[in-house]
Design a protein that fits this description.
Blueprint: E1 17-22, H1 30-35, H2 40-54, E2 58-65, E3 73-79, H3 86-99, E4 103-106, E5 118-126, E6 134-141, H4 150-159, H5 161-193, H6 199-213, E7 218-224, E8 230-235, H7 245-261, E9 265-267, H8 279-288, E10 294-301, E11 307-315, H9 323-347, H10 350-366, H11 371-389, E12 391-404, E13 408-411, E14 416-420, E15 428-429, E16 434-438, H12 441-467, H13 470-496, E17 498-500, E18 505-509, E19 519-520, E20 525-531, E21 535-542, E22 554-559, E23 567-581, E24 584-593, E25 605-616, H14 617-636
Parallel strand pairs: 1-3
Antiparallel strand pairs: 2-3, 2-6, 4-5, 5-6, 7-8, 7-11, 9-10, 10-11, 12-21, 12-25, 13-20, 14-16, 14-19, 15-18, 16-17, 18-20, 21-24, 22-23, 22-25, 23-24
Helix pairs in contact: 5-6, 5-9, 7-8, 12-13
């Protein structure tokens, strides 16, 4: 198990880089150092001192953690502070690390009487796994009983190796605890500023809260303007800073210095900010004129990565910012940036928000992602070009009513009573058919009366002529003519008592079947007739569309009664007569049907579409809206 090394080993080709920390027996107690897992040097020194003092016979020791490797920086701890055997222990530790075993080498007796003689050098790797966590080498005094049992020394050292194996886990646990504390502080901070609805109030709350959390003498919050410069919005524990012009300018310059570099800046520099330029921060410390001033500036970015502001922290009491304070400040700035960005966008005017929306849309449209949006945009553009270039038939839509070419009214020829009415509206009649008959008994009696009166006068005329009475003969001639006229009038009334159809037609209106025996006055319209083979179409065109209509234009009409059979038509007459209907004015235009169907009836209503010519599809679909907007603009604009 053990191998004696009696020859002094030669130095390796590339020795590991060493950072030697001497153990101090008079320093802090061993348990105090072992409890400080965050300081690796103190921990290793306390462990080595504890092991060397607990094992009798050990006069010097060396601990290398982690084991030396090519190009790796190794922390080496020696005990005691002045260790005259450091070179021998180092060479033996390197050999034990490379060979992964315990190495024992005989000691040496020096000529210097001030240095105690060494009986043995023992070196071994520590750790339970295949990869050791450390290498320890000790020197055992000459003449000690321990020199006879190097395996006892190795065993004692292995018993204490658990501390070294637990060190990385303790450090990791401490880092996790720090991260949890930082996250909890950040959440508390967000809860505190979330109560502020305005950007200015939120900036003041941020400055005051951060000054208390990070133990700062002053915290300043700046927000980027639209022109790219930064504006100081709040200083902790200050209601106004109008009289601090130089300080405000210097603070804004420091913030801009951090924004230009897009990184955190610290003065004095921290290990993570050594490469940052700090000219503006040094100038700010000169204006503050307080010894021991420490500054850090962190930047705020929104969710899109755009910078929105910066925060500057100041300490004036010789208490420098450390790594943990910088990390906490950066974490808070990372959480605060998106909130500030939302506030800035919310406070912008409608035009600004529209510009943002347009910018986001352009990024999505021309960026590398969102293929579906690009395909949709191409489709919309293609559709717009098609609508702008393609042409279609512009048609004016209007209500229409079918009327007969000639409408004849059947009226009462004299005052009388209705005797019969065999037809009514909707019936088809032929020329000479009886539409209605009036009561004629009085007319028959009157005709008989005048006929008898005429006969009597004629007989009397004969008698007077026989007597050659010229005077009475003239009188009788006049009376006979009067009687004949009355008789002819009675016969004419009797002939007109039966109302006949003048031609083949359809009864458009009139129904006397429910009023038999009722009196009628002379001239009253009893029926309206329209021919069966001659119609005209009346189209009521809205006044907004009448300018597109001209004589001779054709179109199509569909009636409500036969909507599945559209009929062709042609405009024949445009009358300058307007009709007010349903709150709109319309012009009465006559049209002729190209063909007549057996199902057509006068009075049928439908919808006519007049073809006015080829126009672009965009103009056809947007004409009504554009004209309405023009009229509204003309009405309300001065």
């Amino acid at each position: 198990m053990f191998e004696a090394d009696r020859s002094r080993p030669r130095s390796s080709e590339q020795a590991p880089q060493l950072r030697v920390v001497a153990g101090d027996p008079s320093g802090p107690p061993h348990w105090t150092g072992l409890a400080d897992a965050g300081n690796e040097a103190v921990f290793c020194s306390a462990w080595l001192s504890s092991q060397c003092t607990r094992i009798s016979g050990i006069i010097a020791g060396l601990l290398m953690m982690p084991p030396p490797a090519k190009g790796l920086t190794v922390t080496s701890t020696s005990w005691p502070r002045r260790n005259p055997y450091i070179e021998d222990l180092l060479r033996l530790a390197e050999r034990a690390s490379s060979e992964r075993r315990t190495v024992v080498s005989p000691g040496r007796i020096g000529s210097d009487t001030s240095v105690q003689s060494v009986g043995l050098f023992v070196a071994l790797p520590l750790g339970s796994g295949s990869q050791p966590v450390a290498v320890v080498a000790v020197a055992v005094a000459s003449g000690s009983s321990a020199t006879l049992a190097p395996e006892n020394i190795a065993e004692q050292l292995r018993w204490g190796a658990g501390w070294l194996e637990a060190l990385p886990w303790a450090q990791r646990s401490k880092d996790v605890s720090t991260d949890i504390a930082r996250a909890a502080s950040s959440l508390d901070f967000l809860a505190a500023i979330g109560e502020q609805p305005r950007l200015q109030g939120m900036a003041i709350a941020v400055a005051n809260d951060l000054a208390a959390r990070l133990r700062c003498d002053r915290v300043s919050v700046g927000i980027i303007r639209r022109n790219g410069s930064i504006r100081l919005r709040a200083i902790s524990h200050s209601a106004s800073f109008k009289g601090q012009g130089r300080l405000v300018d210097a603070t804004e310059n420091a913030m801009e210095e951090a924004l230009d570099q897009r990184t955190s800046v610290a003065h004095p520099p921290l290990p993570s900010t050594e490469r940052a330029v700090t000219m503006a921060h040094r100038a700010l410390t000169e204006i503050i004129r307080v010894q021991g001033t420490s500054l850090i500036s962190v930047v705020m970015a929104d969710g899109k990565g755009e910078l929105v502001g910066a925060i500057t922290f100041e300490r004036h009491r010789n208490e420098l910012f450390d790594k943990e304070a910088l990390q906490l400040a950066e974490a808070i700035a990372a959480l605060l940036g998106p909130i500030v960005g939302l506030q800035l966008r919310a406070n912008r005017l409608l035009a600004g928000r529209a510009i943002d929306r347009a910018g986001d849309g352009c990024v999505s449209l021309f960026g590398p992602r969102h293929p579906a949006l690009k395909l949709a945009a191409i489709g919309v553009i293609a559709l717009a070009l098609f609508l702008a270039l393609a042409k279609g038939e512009h048609r004016v839509t209007a209500k229409s009513v079918l009327e007969g070419e000639v409408q004849r009214a059947a009226v009462a020829p004299f005052d009388g009573f209705i005797r019969s009415a065999p037809v009514r509206a909707g019936d088809t009649v032929k020329a000479g058919d009886v539409l209605a008959a009036l009561e004629d008994r009085d007319l028959i009696l009157e005709r008989a009366k005048w006929r008898a009166e005429r006969d009597k006068l004629v007989q009397k005329q004969r008698e007077v002529r026989a007597k050659h009475d010229r005077t009475n003969l003239v009188i009788l001639d006049s009376q006979i003519r009067q009687a004949e006229a009355q008789l002819a009038l009675a016969e004419e009334k009797l002939s007109r008592a039966r109302i006949l159809a003048p031609f083949d037609a359809i009864v458009v209106s009139g129904d006397l079947s429910q009023t038999l025996g009722s009196p009628v006055e002379r001239g009253k319209t009893l029926f309206e007739l329209a021919p069966l083979d001659s119609y005209r179409l009346i189209v009521h065109v809205d006044e907004r569309d009448v300018r597109y209509v001209a004589m001779g234009q054709s179109g199509t009409v569909a009636f409500a009664g036969v909507p599945w059979t559209p009929l062709r038509m042609a405009l024949s007459k445009i009358t300058p007569v307007t009709v007010a209907e349903e709150g709109r004015n319309s012009f009465r235009i006559e049209a002729r049907l190209a063909e007549l169907g057996p199902q057509l009836r006068p009075g049928m209503e439908g919808v006519a579409k007049i073809e006015t010519g080829q126009r672009s599809l965009v103009w056809i679909w947007t004409r009504a809206v554009v004209e309405w907007l023009r009229l509204v603009a003309w009405k309300y604009l001065p």
